[in-house]
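stage 2 :: seqdesign
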């Protein structure tokens, strides 16, 4: 956890702005964080001591050559992975930067997360002034790498996290999605609904811009399948049973939940969510996808608590 400084503890700092966009300075912090762990991936690209008796460091040439295929769109200078070049534009009085793909940087971070191994310094080679590295069959160092990356995400206001599963997820502020809801989903007896919701949640957390659209489509599919949860009943009767159970047979709440199911069904039919005909309403603002996802999820999460 990052330390709270004096001005933070006493409410004297302006609220930190949050973003999904990685600036050149943020890119540099994340890239240099990975550089600190070069020795931890040296087992994969070993630079041998001149005496041939041990690994001394990362073979950067072999590493860089392999990344041409592992992460082809990662920013490079003269073919070498690097930090985006910035310069001051005297005509427009602003700093410019060469274009870069921030999602390839996420690939780079996940590459380190997947390949970091623990090592210790072995024998010291006096002539060359270096240690031989001894690699272990463990990756406890990942905890340190994960913390370093997540600390950068947090202090720069980047809405991402590196998870225990060694993947980067986006963070959606004020989202109803919680570990409790994810646990609920894992307990659903009906396999189809469970699979659709799991896929929707994975897509929702994915940083790639197009994923939120796919997440909304999946969760709307889950909503439609939920209506048929009681397979011994027809769809309308099954949906009515779900609503009645959610409302505890209270007519006031039956009306509320019926209206919400109908509204969400209409949204799914009229907007480009489940159908893509030219007369459907396009969703231009990506934040609207998050709104639709969370609204649909809220109703489903409540319904799951009443399924028999």
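stage 2 :: out
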């Amino acid at each position: 956890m990052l330390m709270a400084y004096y001005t933070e503890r006493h409410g004297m700092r302006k609220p930190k702005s949050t973003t999904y966009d990685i600036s050149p300075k943020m890119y540099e912090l994340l890239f240099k964080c990975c550089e600190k762990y070069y020795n931890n991936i040296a087992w994969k690209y070993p630079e041998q001591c001149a005496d041939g008796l041990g690994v001394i460091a990362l073979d950067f040439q072999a590493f860089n050559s392999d990344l041409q295929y592992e992460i082809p769109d990662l920013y490079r200078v003269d073919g070498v992975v690097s930090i985006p070049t910035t310069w001051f534009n005297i005509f427009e009085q602003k700093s410019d930067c060469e274009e870069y793909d921030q999602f390839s940087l996420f690939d780079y971070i996940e590459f380190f997360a997947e390949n970091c191994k623990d090592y210790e310094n072995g024998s010291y080679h006096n002539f060359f002034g270096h240690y031989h590295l001894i690699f272990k069959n463990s990756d406890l160092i990942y905890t340190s790498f994960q913390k370093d990356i997540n600390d950068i995400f947090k202090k720069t206001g980047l809405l991402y996290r590196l998870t225990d599963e060694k993947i980067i997820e986006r963070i959606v502020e004020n989202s109803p999605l919680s570990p409790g809801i994810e646990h609920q989903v894992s307990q659903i007896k009906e396999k189809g609904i469970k699979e659709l919701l799991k896929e929707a949640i994975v897509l929702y957390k994915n940083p790639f811009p197009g994923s939120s659209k796919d997440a909304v489509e999946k969760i709307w599919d889950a909503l439609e399948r939920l209506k048929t949860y009681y397979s011994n009943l027809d769809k309308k009767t099954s949906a009515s049973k779900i609503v009645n159970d959610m409302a505890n047979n209270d007519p006031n709440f039956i009306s509320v939940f019926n209206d919400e199911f109908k509204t969400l069904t209409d949204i799914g039919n009229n907007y480009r969510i489940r159908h893509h005909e030219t007369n459907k309403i396009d969703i231009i603002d990506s934040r609207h996808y998050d709104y639709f996802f969370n609204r649909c999820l809220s109703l489903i999460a409540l319904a799951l608590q009443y399924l028999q």
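stage 3 :: structure notes
- The chain has a mean pLDDT of 90.
- DSSP finds eleven helices and ten strands in the chain.
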